[in-house]
Design goal:
The structure holds three protein chains of three kinds. Chain A is mostly helical. Chain A is built from twelve helices and no strands. In chain A, helix 4 runs antiparallel to helix 10, helix 7 packs across helix 10 and helix 10 packs antiparallel against helix 12. Chain B is of the alpha/beta class. In chain B, 31% of the residues lie in helices and 22% in strands. In chain B, strand 4 and strand 5 form a beta hairpin. Chain B is globular, with a radius of gyration of 21 Å. Chain C contains 13 helices and twelve strands. Chain C has an eight-stranded mixed β-sheet, sandwiched between helices. Chain C has a four-stranded antiparallel β-sheet with strand order 2-1-4-5, with helices on one face. In chain C, a hairpin with a 2-residue loop joins strand 4 and strand 5. In chain C, helix 7 runs parallel beside helix 8. The chains are: A mainly alpha, B alpha/beta, C alpha/beta.
Chain lengths: 301, 349, 339
């Protein structure tokens, strides 16, 4: 260096902080969440759902798989808050335990499509030219697939079950993420900070993953919270038509299917309560997504 | 220290016209100059003249279509991306828009520290100490290290940009309109900083700007670009006081004179800058030049010496057929009372 | 509060702003963007309103033409135009005034034009709506106006879409549109920002020519002192929402008296002068948490106890030369000593 360190450095100034203190960032995050009721309500619903899933055995009054021939298809009562199904299982306990399976499906489906989709989109945009063209046309083809036909194909190949639901809901969402990532990446790639990263001698990988991708993640995260809701709906739908988990499992879609079999008997509570659970969960994730969009939008800062 | 030599630099961008046709946009056409350590070369021109593209080619952020960028004996244009990486630190760049040139998700400290780690100069606490030192040198405080770009003012952001360039310990810095987004008083501070850093580190500057007074103040030599080509190059005094190319004459006569008593004799160019798509081979100013003859429309041009260090791309001017206007440097000097910094109590940073 | 009065300008004032307060309430508190602004514009006079970003020069323009963006509001003072106080005007009154009597041109002319319509069409619409012309009259007048602003081949240019025009051409079209209803006051907000030096000069010439032709008063808002020196009759310097100095252009450059003006003039780089540029220490003040007294005092070498205690009023030092400073004499003495 041309300049010798001629400034006497006091012993206390030896450590420099490169990041604002953690507490300050948390306070800032909390303040913006508090000023955005949409996001706050969404966050409360989503956190409650997670807590219910984690503490399901403590919340549920009965074992959801315990058959009780004494109490078959009973309407809601003090003993059975949401009534019982045609096998005498407690619907409330089924709905509570169902949150575990549904959140698991949604989270794994979102993670799989998010990671693969953003990677594909980022690389297509960064490489550009024929690579971009080729990759995005494959994405077009994937997106043009009818969802349930695709799910039937997967189910035919590996049999119905958890894996089928996850694969069916994630693969077809990959193009959405890829397209979104590509659209945010294209202008970012032309930004001066990207050129600056290149000019200090960064490798392609560092420019792409160290500088560009972190700046493109906000819309991706917003998109993913919205997709959580869709994934739950889709998983339930697949179970309803019999391509998902078994009807006997504690899963909201399967439970609705079960209730639907008894539709004519007028046992409304068997399908209504899991239906409501789906509605609340989807609403929670959507509110959170919309709110985050406002909070994380850099133009608002 | 080796010097930087740009030789017959060409940058064309293909443009699709219709379904199959392609034409090319001649952003830079056959530009050559050199830059010595410790020297400032001003590159002026209006929008569309290709001056920014030259800056990006010199730093190899845009690969030139042809021509050479020689850093000492090494031709940077022959190297692959990975071969180039360790050499990039020698030629750094500071961008125009301080807001867009800093990564919004990295703090100022992280941005400036990165080159130390990349170049293997230092890591950990030592790198942080060097970063803090650089912050002091560019007039920032160590507590600015933990700030994000949006928490800094435009002037502070630009200082971070300069610190990032310095962190690589370069020999040359391309300054691409570094002060044009800033207010006058902030701009003055930054210009002082650039001058001081140059003196301390013997940096060579390629100063790209459309602001003639800033270029005139900072540069040892000036090159004037028009439609992708250098039309005139010489010492600042030569180019500003006795411009020989009709375009430079028009440019210099348009410099707003700070003294309302002395309005300059204007030299007007007809029309507007033509499209850079498939421009003609001969002089590119003919359509607007008041001195153009049929010869100008047919003969290819070259940069010819008119006096030592002063070269002009105009066949008529070289033969002495165009009257040379004289502009006095002093006429752009403010006619306000001479303001001695100490006497009016302004800081000299 | 004293204002640069009618005696200051030989010409009759067209616009007189007195003690204007324009405030922007924010979450953190009220930002007093304009804080007691005084300014007069005479008929056929070009007044340069010069200031750095955040000084409130653009907000002044928007306040005068009634286009303040929310949450900005006029909290006090008067804007007297032709005997009427514009701060009391109802929306209907604005419709009759804006565009007809008072017109404004902006930076980024291309973003002010409708990208989907040819410029001739846009100009014709203004003329038909505002001046009640028939289609053919309006077209002829539009062509004449484009010629007035020196657009070559105006008939052909009528058919051009905004994206086919260069920045300079688009600004000429905007000027043609602004003068189409023969306004008596024209506000030009940084009209040459983003244009090249040679084009910039042509637009300034055009502004002056339009003034000569129409006799309108012009407020030229700019951050560039050199540019103001080129065309203005008078220059007013803004700092933190009020005028700190105002003078006829020659006097302004030969006898500047406010410390901030001195700093601004000194910090311009000068060709061929190999001296360090003196810079103004410190930064522009926070408009929400303003310094007490004179807004410039924390950055001023001449600051005394009075400066932090009391806001200095604009005082007329010489004919038409107004300065808001408690220590004009000390400043004048020191500047004189330095020469």
């Amino acid at each position: 260096m041309a300049h010798a360190p001629n400034l006497p450095v006091p012993a206390t100034a030896q450590t420099y902080s490169l990041r604002p203190p953690f507490g300050e960032r948390m306070r800032h995050g909390w303040a913006s969440l508090r000023s955005n009721p949409t996001a706050l309500i969404g966050a409360i619903i989503v956190i409650s759902l997670l807590l219910i899933a984690i503490f399901a055995p403590l919340i549920a009054p009965y074992d959801p798989y315990e058959l009780n021939m004494e109490a078959i298809a009973q309407p809601p009562s003090g003993a059975h808050l949401f009534g019982t199904d045609q096998f005498g299982r407690d619907v409330f306990s089924l709905v509570v335990f169902g949150s575990r399976l549904d959140l698991l499906i949604a989270i794994s489906a979102v993670i799989v499509s998010l990671v693969i989709g953003t990677l594909i989109g980022a690389i297509a945009a960064y490489l550009g030219g024929w690579w971009d063209e080729g990759i995005m046309r494959v994405m077009d083809i994937l997106q043009a697939f009818p969802r349930f036909i695709f799910a039937m194909g997967i189910a035919f190949a590996i049999g119905p079950g958890l894996a089928t639901v996850v694969i069916a809901t994630s693969v077809l969402n990959i193009p959405g993420y890829a397209r979104l990532m590509r659209s945010v990446m294209l202008p970012a790639k032309k930004s001066q900070y990207a050129m600056a990263a290149q000019s200090i001698g960064s490798s392609h990988a560092n420019v792409l993953f160290g500088h560009l991708v972190p700046n493109c993640l906000v819309p991706i995260f917003v998109q993913s919270t919205l997709q959580f809701g869709w994934a739950i709906l889709e998983a339930a739908g697949l179970s309803f038509i019999g391509l998902g988990v078994e009807t006997s499992a504690a899963e909201w879609g399967a439970l609705i299917q079960l209730g639907f079999q008894d539709f004519n008997a007028g046992h409304w509570w068997i399908y209504t309560f899991p239906g409501l659970a789906i509605a609340v969960a989807v609403l929670g994730f959507n509110l959170l997504g919309d709110g985050l969009q406002d909070i994380l939008d850099p133009r608002r800062q | 220290m080796s010097s930087l030599r740009i030789d017959r630099l060409v940058k064309h961008y293909p443009i699709r016209t219709g379904f199959f046709g392609t034409r090319s946009l001649h952003a830079v056409d056959d530009v050559s100059f050199d830059l010595a350590p410790g020297e400032t070369l001003g590159l002026v021109g209006e929008s569309g003249s290709g001056k920014s593209t030259v800056g990006k080619c010199v730093t190899m952020l845009e690969p030139p279509t042809s021509g050479h960028v020689m850093l000492g004996d090494v031709d940077l244009t022959t190297l692959s991306y990975n071969q180039l990486r360790p050499l990039r630190k020698k030629v750094q760049i500071v961008f125009q828009d301080p807001n867009d040139s800093l990564n919004p998700r990295k703090t100022a400290g992280e941005t400036v520290l990165e080159p130390f780690v990349l170049n293997g100069v230092a890591t950990g606490a030592e790198a942080q100490r060097l970063t803090a030192e650089l912050f002091e040198q560019v007039g920032l405080k160590p507590e600015h290290m933990a700030r994000f770009p949006h928490q800094l003012s435009g002037g502070q952001q630009q200082r971070v940009g300069i610190a990032r360039a310095l962190a690589s310990n370069p020999d040359f810095i391309v300054l691409d309109e570094p002060t044009s987004a800033l207010d006058v008083s902030v701009q003055a501070k930054l210009i002082q900083l650039l001058k001081r850093l140059q003196a301390d580190r013997n940096l060579g500057y390629l100063f790209i700007s459309h602001d003639l007074s800033v270029v005139g103040y900072l540069s040892d030599r000036v090159a004037v670009m028009y439609l992708g080509q250098i039309v005139e190059i010489g010492s600042t005094r030569q180019v500003f006081e006795r411009p020989r190319h009709p375009y430079t004459m028009a440019l210099m006569s348009a410099v707003p004179s700070a003294n309302p008593l002395e309005r300059r004799e204007r030299i007007h160019l007809a029309g507007e800058i033509p499209s850079p798509i498939d421009p003609p081979n001969h002089c590119r100013l003919v359509s607007r030049c008041p001195f153009a003859t049929d010869e100008c429309r047919s003969r290819p041009i070259s940069l010819d010496v008119v006096e030592p260090g002063h070269r002009v791309a105009c066949i008529r001017s070289v033969r002495g057929e165009i009257p040379v206007p004289e502009f006095l440097f002093a006429s752009s000097v403010v006619h306000a009372p001479r303001l001695d910094a100490a006497s009016i109590g302004l800081d000299l940073e | 509060m004293t204002t640069p009065s009618m005696t200051a300008n030989a010409k009759q004032p067209l616009l007189e702003i007195r003690g204007l307060q324009t405030h922007f309430p924010t979450r953190r508190g009220v930002a007093k963007v304009l804080d007691g602004l005084d300014l007069t514009v005479g008929k056929g006079e070009i007044v340069g309103l010069v200031g750095e970003s955040g000084s409130g020069k653009s907000v002044t323009g928007y306040s005068v033409i009634g286009l303040l963006k929310r949450p900005g509001q006029i909290a006090g003072g008067q804007i007297i135009y032709d005997g009427k106080d514009l701060t009391k005007l109802k929306p209907k009154g604005w419709e009759d005034l804006r565009g007809k009597e008072i017109a404004m041109i902006f930076q980024n002319p291309r973003s002010c034009l409708n990208p989907l319509l040819p410029v001739g069409e846009q100009l014709t619409q203004v003329l038909r709506y505002r001046r009640g012309m028939t289609k053919s009259e309006a077209k002829a007048e539009a062509i004449r106006l484009l010629g007035t602003v020196h657009i070559p081949e105006p008939e052909r240019r009528m058919e051009s879409y905004p994206h086919q025009l260069s920045g300079g051409m688009a600004q000429r079209v905007m000027i043609a549109m602004a003068i189409s209803c023969k306004p008596r006051l024209l506000i030009a907000d940084e009209p040459t920002t983003g244009l090249d030096v040679t084009t910039e000069h042509q637009i300034l010439e055009l502004l002056r020519e339009m003034r000569d032709v129409t006799g309108a008063g012009v407020i030229l808002i700019t951050h560039d002192l050199n540019m103001a020196a080129e065309v203005c009759d008078r220059i007013a310097v803004m700092y933190a929402g009020s005028i700190v100095e105002e003078a006829p252009v020659l006097e302004f450059f030969s006898q500047p008296r406010h410390p901030y003006t001195l700093g601004l003039l000194a910090s311009r780089p000068r060709l061929g002068v190999d001296e360090d540029i003196p810079v103004i220490p410190g930064n522009v003040p926070d408009l929400i948490d303003r310094p007490t007294g004179c807004a410039f005092h924390p950055r001023c070498r001449w600051a005394t106890a009075a400066c932090s205690a009391q806001v200095p009023a604009l005082v007329e030092l010489a004919a038409g030369h107004w300065v808001a400073c408690h220590n004009t004499e000390a400043v004048a003495r020191d500047v004189l000593a330095a020469n």
